[in-house]
Amino acid sequence: MPFFGARDRNADRRRQEYADWYAYKERYFANEEIRKEQHAAAVKQQETDVANNEANLRRKEKDRIQQYETERDIQNFQFDNAERAYNKSLDQAATQKNFNVMAESAAIMEQNAKKRDDLLGVMFDESDTLLEYGFATTGLKVDKQNKLVAAKFEESKINTKYIGDVGAFELDRRKTRSESQVETQKAIIEGMKAAGSIRARGGTGRSAAKGTIAVMAESGALRATIANGLMYAEQSVDLNIAQLKDMLILDQTMVLAARDAANTEYDLKSSKADTSLGLDKMKINASRTSIKERDAIVRNNILLARQQADIAAEAQIMLQPERMPEVVDPREFYKEYDDPETEDYIEMLIRPDIVEIPDYEPEPMLDYEEDFHYSRGREDAAASNFGDILKIGGLALTAVGGIAGIGALGTGSMTASSGVFGITGAGAQTFGTIGAGLTSFSSNFYSGLDYSQQRR
């Protein structure tokens, strides 16, 4: 900054103030044109917004009317559909119940046939059982009678054979006895003849007696032999008869055993048949009881199935439809907001209050004397020149202090001997400090004077 140039700087400020004034006027008129255009556009935009808002409100009002009519048509359609569905569910339930009645009748008929077939089967089983029992018992009786008759015939046969055999042996006994008697009589006669022959010869004495005795002895021996043979024959006959008696007893025992076996077999088989008949009767009675109980259960199940099917049919019946609350007509609901002046149209929505845009007013223009003259400030020439003098003095003292400080530093101590100009290091530092203070003070002087002048 040159020294002593305050007047020149004041002249520059005046020129800048005129330049600011002319630039301001140019901006002002340009801004005014823009503001006029913006005002016109705002007025036009407001008119457009008002028209669009009215059109939008009318569209919303038409939408509400259309929505009201649509909702009413939907309600009518839904009610008609619900009513048709309800009537159809009633028809379906009635049809299902009629079918349930027919199904129950068919099931009962089928159960009756099933019960009849089961009872017929039990009856046939019972008849077969009784017939088989009758056949079995009759056969047992016939078999028993046949065996008893066979045993009777066998007994008669045995007795007849025994009597015949005993008679034969008795005949043999008699024959043997007769033959023995005949032989004995022959032996006696022969002995008598021999004795008579000896007497006839006329022999006497001991020889004749001995001959007679010999003949008698021979005759006696012959009779003894005959008697022994008869005895043996009698013993043989007795033995055979005894054997016949033993065989008779054995055969009679076998006959009795056959009779007992026939009776025992009859009793066992008859008891078995009776027991089997009793079991079969128990089975038949149990089957009849089971058929009755099962029939009751099946009939009860048929009844329950019918009831359940009826309940299911009734459950399919829909609730009787009811109309929903009527939709409020927006023309009636919002009629309080209608403008009486609009006779051809019902206003349902509130129209906003339109604030008119005021007419255009130009912005006040600034005045040169009041707003621009002295706007950049003025300097006091005398004070500025005094500050320059202080600044020059400060610079000089700073230079002196700096040169003296260079010489003092060469001695290596601030307390050394004098340097350049005979100034010690401490003195040089003092000069430098004073010079810096003057320079700073002069700067404060300038800054305080730049814009401190009042506008005249």
Q: How much beta, percentage-wise?
A: under 5%
Oligomer: single chain
Structural class: mainly alpha
Strand segment count: 0
Share of helical residues: over 70%
Euclidean distance between termini CA atoms = 27 Å
Q: Mean of the pLDDT scores?
A: 77
Question: What letter string, H or E per element, gives the SSE order?
Answer: HHHHHH
Number of helices: 6
Taking the sheet with the most strands, its summary is: none
- Rg result: 87 Å
Label the overall shape.
elongated
List segments where confidence is low: pLDDT < 50 over at least 5 consecutive residues. Answer: 411-417, 447-456
Short description:
The protein has 456 residues and is mainly α. The chain has helices at 6-200, 205-315, 330-333, 368-371, 381-409, 425-447. Helix content is 80%, strand content 0%.
Please give a structural write-up.
- With 456 residues, the chain is an all-alpha fold.
- It has a domain at 377-456.
- The radius of gyration is 87 Å and the shape is elongated.
- It has six helices and no strands.
- Helix content is 80%, strand content 0%.
Notable characteristics:
disordered C terminus; 0% strand; mainly alpha
Annotate the secondary structure layout.
Layout: H1 6-200, H2 205-315, H3 330-333, H4 368-371, H5 381-409, H6 425-447
Helix pairs in contact: 1-2, 5-6
